[in-house]
Amino acid sequence: MKKYAEMTRSELELERAEVQAKYDELKAKKLSLNMARGKPGKAQLDMTSEMMDILKSDSDYMCDGIDVRNYGNLEGLPSCRALFAELLGVKPENVFCGGTASLQMMYDTIAKCYTHGRVNSDKPWAKLDKVKWLCPAPGYDRHFAISQSFGMEMITVPMTSEGPDMDLVEELIRDGDVRGMWCVPKYSNPDGIVYSAETIRRIASMKPAAKDFLLMWDNAYCVHEFFGDYLPFPDILGECAKYGNEDMVFEFASTSKITFPGAGVSVFACSEHNMEYVKKLLTVQVISYDKVNQLRHVRYLRDKAGVLALMKRHAAILGPKFRCVLDWLDREIAPRGIAQWQKPNGGYFVSVNTMPGIAKETWRLCKEAGLTMTGAGATFPYGRDPKDSNMRVAPSLPPTEQLEQAMEVYCISMRLAALNKLLA
Amino acid sequence: MKKYAEMTRSELELERAEVQAKYDELKAKKLSLNMARGKPGKAQLDMTSEMMDILKSDSDYMCDGIDVRNYGNLEGLPSCRALFAELLGVKPENVFCGGTASLQMMYDTIAKCYTHGRVNSDKPWAKLDKVKWLCPAPGYDRHFAISQSFGMEMITVPMTSEGPDMDLVEELIRDGDVRGMWCVPKYSNPDGIVYSAETIRRIASMKPAAKDFLLMWDNAYCVHEFFGDYLPFPDILGECAKYGNEDMVFEFASTSKITFPGAGVSVFACSEHNMEYVKKLLTVQVISYDKVNQLRHVRYLRDKAGVLALMKRHAAILGPKFRCVLDWLDREIAPRGIAQWQKPNGGYFVSVNTMPGIAKETWRLCKEAGLTMTGAGATFPYGRDPKDSNMRVAPSLPPTEQLEQAMEVYCISMRLAALNKLLA
Questions:
Q1: Are residues B247 and B315 located together in one domain of the fold?
Q2: How close B278 comes to chain A (CA, Å)?
Q3: Residues B185, B236: contact at Cβ < 8 Å?
Q4: B183-200 pLDDT, tens digit each
């Protein structure tokens, strides 16, 4: 099998005729497939549903001397704070257990910067002329959407195999208008890159010109290995504290991909100083979060060992799906030399970089053949991928037989887009 | 028994000696009682806990063709929207079902005014020099805390027996800086007043100078009768629409006092125009709310009839508690003429207006004798009751035997405060 770049024009034309025929054949099947979002599949949901009726009798609702069914304990159930503290390697008093969505916590953290300012801000950010924000990309589209919604000026920072390009970051934070940065440090969305120890050290020791710079550390995949064993990972609060930066960072996590998407428990972790400040603001916003659901999680997950055991069961479902995606890419795309990709051990995505200029067209062809993919460009600020190259593959939702078909459509669509481009 | 105002000085002194002795006796018991917050009692929580294991098998999680355990349906589960639509007398498409706290929804609605503006705002409120806000008082302290947190200039509007003083409201809204108003229209917090049809008509037909005026309609006690039958109540969306004001209002409700405080389902209702606008903002903030909990509520409550039947069971627990409070006041306070109060048929409070100048001292005496009451003044903007007179009694949490004791402490403390004042 030849790389497309090495084919003659007539060879490309022959290949196109063949690929087009195969594409038309797939399209005729009127498929309805979806690899757009990191949604767990039904097998995962069925597996964890055993948590749902774990609370049965009236006495089950007592925990830490608290009746979890009533108002109170803004910062969350102590046992739940302890569970997440163990997971994240921080102290329970640094953990705030909230509702069901870490995205909402992140949004609210940013919103409060605008309406009230940070613990050490001179004024609310709404009163600033400009807020610039560092966006390692490819990154998580919902992070960028938050930044955009608040009118931030997003600055793209390229990802390296060790995390964000720190030379560039260290340069950019000299600008006092740069107020923060998004990070998904372990199994980054979408690349699945694990930030290296050196990258983390450089992030934790940053000296931004803006004294109220906010490091948004979205540890969404902190225990989410699908190949191999749990990978220990530094606690960013402790790392930042080493350099006097303990107030710079908010860390986020949730059980959306441990128990239930949008119905789990979300948390943030921060310094005592930050905690005191945000609790004063939060007590105006909410009396207390759903401690019943927090208790369900405590009883079901128990501790870090319990979580890691459950994640092994998720991996048994997810691993084969990721294997399927990587096998298709290795078999169908690699020999043709039209894309490259990371081979992650955890997270929820495979990030594919096609030859420049064909991501959008590949997306369109997939769509036309009944396969919904994450929008091409979505992984970049403002939805603009300068190379029109990055595509996020999310294989978790479809059952395996559908996934095989989806990957067939995806690979054929990419090949057709590449051939059309090369022959244009 | 004589009214204190009619007693001679020596009679008052005799009375004080007697009351002081009784107070000291109570204080010596080292009680720990709480009538501070509208928290349901354990008997209510035990009663509704039957909801918690209503979802058992994997197939139970399917509703409206949706697997409630996964991401999706930002605006809530259709069946849950329909349930609240029936409760509030609106259409399901006007209802947004969210997380567990209507307070958070209210806060977020205000926060978005500041960061993004309303659907018809010229600019975000954070860019305005001044935001003034109408606060019918006595009112809900947490409403006022939100206004204060955002730096609003709160304007107190006195309550009448039919709701806010509308002559004054109609005068105040001519000021273009007045951007909104808090209302608890049915069984107002704390007075338990039901806004009259005429008050509601005048509110719905307001023509505020500020075109983006926001009516915050906190229908917290929409089905919360503890004496007598369910009282039908106008749908504020429809009322406002009659006068072309459909975009002026957001209505809020929750099941915090139907199922579980802080672990129920909260909703807002608004016009289609508002819904479209806020959904665009909300989709950035959250993927979807806890539909599992929404489904639990749908399966348990079923429909309005189901809710009203459950509220009758709550009333059977709450009614005697309110009867106890009113009996104590009638027996111990009324004859002495040192306070007046509403006699509500629903809600969670009894609002007591003492003779001027003794609410804070009564609170202090209660505290010293082991009884925590809502802070005196808390029911007014900035916590400042100009007459130092209003006190909110919240009898729902203590079991009846504790409530008897709490009311004894409360009445004795008020009598002592009155006597000290009259003899000063």
A1: no
A2: 12
A3: yes
A4: 999 999 999 999 999 999
Please identify which residue in the block is written with the tokens 């309550």: B159
Separation of alpha carbons B82 and B68, rounded Å:
16
Rounded to the nearest angstrom, the minimum Cα separation between A126 and chain B is 6
The reply to whether B193 and B101 lie within a common domain is yes
Q: Judge if ipTM > 0.85.
A: yes
Which chain B residue has the Cα nearest residue A103?
B286
Asked whether residue A65 falls in the same domain as residue A138, the answer is: yes
Chain A residues lying within 8 Å of B256, measured CB to CB: 71
For residue B290 the two structure tokens come to 């806890």
Residues whose CB falls within 8 Å of the CB of residue A98, separated by 6 or more in sequence, listed in order? A76, A104, A105, A265, A266, A267, A268, A289
Distances (CA, A) of B235 to A29, A361, B225, B307, B389: 50, 50, 17, 18, 33
> Angle of helix B9-28 relative to helix B400-423, nearest 10 degrees?
140
Spell out which residues of chain A touch residue B127, defining contact as CB-CB under 8 Å. Answer: 126
pLDDT in tens, B298-346: 999 999 999 999 999 999 999 999 999 999 999 999 999 999 999 999 9
DSSP codes of every residue in B21-35: HHHHHHHHT---EEE
Point out which residues pair with B299 in neighbouring strands. none
pTM of the model: 0.97
Q: Which of A128, A115, A135, A87 is nearest to A380 (CA)?
A: A135
Structure tokens at B101: 């706290």
Domain of B161 in residue numbering reads as 57-302
Q: Are B89 and B238 in contact (CB under 8 A)?
A: yes
Q: What is the C-alpha radius of gyration for chain B, rounded to an integer number of angstroms?
A: 23
Q: Give the CATH number, domain containing residue A29.
A: 3.90.1150.10
Give A-chain residues touching B150 at CB under 8 angstroms.
115
Neighbour tally for B153: CB within 10 Å: 13
Tokens 């009680």 correspond to what residue? Answer: B31
